[in-house]
C-alpha cells in the first residue's frame, strides 16, 4: 500500500528536542522532494522544511536555525530534528512527497502530534 508514515511525535518540555521520522513501504523517496508541514488548531497548514532529491533544503522562518531536515534514501526515510522547541511548535506534523515534475504534493502522511508544554 502506498502511504507515508510519520513517527517520533510526543510530549516534550520547552527547550527540549524531538526527532521525527517519515518512512514508506510502497513509495520510493529517492529523487523526489520531501517536506515536513505542520498544522496547529485554528491555523493553516504551513511548511516547516523541505529537501530536494539533490539535498537542497528550505526552512520556514519560524524554525530556521532550530530544525534540521535530512534524508537517507538507502533507508527510504526523511527526518526532522527539532531542537529548542517552543510552545508555538505544538502542532500535528505531516510528511509529504512531491515528484520532480509536479507542482503539488503527491502524497501526505496521516500526521504525528507534537506537543511542547511544561
Give the distance, in angstroms, between the N- and C-terminal Cα atoms.
38 Å
Low-confidence stretches: none
Oligomer: single chain
The residue-averaged pLDDT reads 96
Beta fraction of the residues?
over 45%
Question: What would your notes on this structure say?
Answer:
The protein contains no helices and 11 strands. The chain is mostly beta strands and 118 residues long. It is globular and about 40 Å long.
Defining traits:
118 residues, seven-stranded mixed β-sheet, four-stranded antiparallel β-sheet, mainly beta
TL;DR of this structure?
With 118 residues, the chain is mainly beta. It is 0% helix and 47% strand.
Helix/strand layout:
Layout: E1 5-7, E2 10-12, E3 18-23, E4 33-39, E5 46-51, E6 57-59, E7 67-72, E8 77-82, E9 91-98, E10 107-108, E11 112-116
Parallel strand pairs: 2-11
Antiparallel strand pairs: 1-3, 3-8, 4-5, 4-9, 5-6, 7-8, 9-10, 9-11
Amino acid at each position: 500500500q502506498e502511504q507515508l508514515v510519520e513517527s517520533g511525535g510526543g510530549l516534550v518540555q520547552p527547550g527540549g528536542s524531538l526527532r521525527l521520522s517519515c518512512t514508506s513501504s510502497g513509495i520510493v523517496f529517492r529523487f523526489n522532494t520531501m517536506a515536513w508541514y505542520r498544522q496547529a488548531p485554528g491555523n493553516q497548514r504551513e511548511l516547516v522544511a523541505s529537501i530536494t532529491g539533490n539535498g537542497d533544503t528550505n526552512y520556514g522562518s519560524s524554525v530556521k536555525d532550530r530544525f534540521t531536515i535530512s534524508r537517507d534514501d538507502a533507508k527510504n526515510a526523511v527526518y526532522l530534528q527539532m531542537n529548542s522547541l517552543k510552545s508555538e511548535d505544538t502542532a500535528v506534523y505531516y510528511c509529504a512527497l512531491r515528484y520532480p515534475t509536479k507542482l503539488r504534493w503527491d502524497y501526505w502522511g496521516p500526521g504525528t502530534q507534537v506537543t511542547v508544554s511544561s
